[in-house]
Structures are given as C-alpha cells and as structure tokens.
Design goal:
By secondary structure, the protein is an all-alpha fold. The protein is built from five helices and no strands. The chain is elongated and about 80 Å long.
Length: 107
C-alpha cells in the first residue's frame, strides 16, 4: 500500500517535472526580446558557417584539428588584407558559386 502510493507520487513528480520542462522550452522558443533574437540569429549564422567548413571537407582533411583550422583561417584573413583582396574574393566567389551549383564537395 505504502510502496504503491510512493510509486504513484514518484510518477506524478516525474510527469510534473517533464511538463514544467516542456513549458520552459516553449517559453524559451517564444522569447522575442531583442537580445534573445540577436543571440539566436548569431547562433544560426555560426552553425551555417560551421556547415560550410564541414561541406568543404576541412574537418576530415585536418583530422578535426581545430588549431590547424584556425591557422588556415588566419592565413586566409591575412591574404584578404593584401593588395589583391578584390581579385582573391572574386576567385573564391566564382569557385564557391560553381561548387554550390554543381553540388560538388570533396566528401
């Protein structure tokens, strides 16, 4: 009798906690404060950029070596600070556009 009441109470507590968690998650998704929206947009943007790193095959090619990837990005940034910035960007855009259109990737 007591063990059954205890089990029933435990189940009710678990269901209540799950319902509370669902409510908090729903509220978090519906939060429209400016800073929350900006954080979501930034997070979405960063996820898209990470997807490009993955799509280019850089994760596999470097063995998921984040230090190497960061070094490569720093090299790209230095190159864009040079005199031929516009030419370099034009080449990269053309290559990227072609890859997107054909669905090419090194995978």
């Amino acid at each position: 009798m007591l063990s059954q009441a205890l089990a029933t109470t435990h189940d009710a507590i678990r269901r209540t906690a799950a319902a509370r968690h669902r409510l908090e998650a729903r509220r978090a998704r519906a939060d429209t404060r400016a800073w929350v929206m900006q954080r979501r947009e930034r997070t979405h943007h960063l996820i898209e950029l990470g997807g490009l790193v993955q799509k280019a095959g850089l994760v596999e090619l470097t063995g998921d070596d984040r230090v190497a990837l960061y070094g490569a990005f720093l090299t790209l940034a230095l190159r864009l600070q040079g005199e031929d910035r516009d030419h370099t960007l034009a080449l990269w855009r053309r290559s990227g556009k072609r890859a997107f259109e054909t669905g090419d990737s090194p995978d």
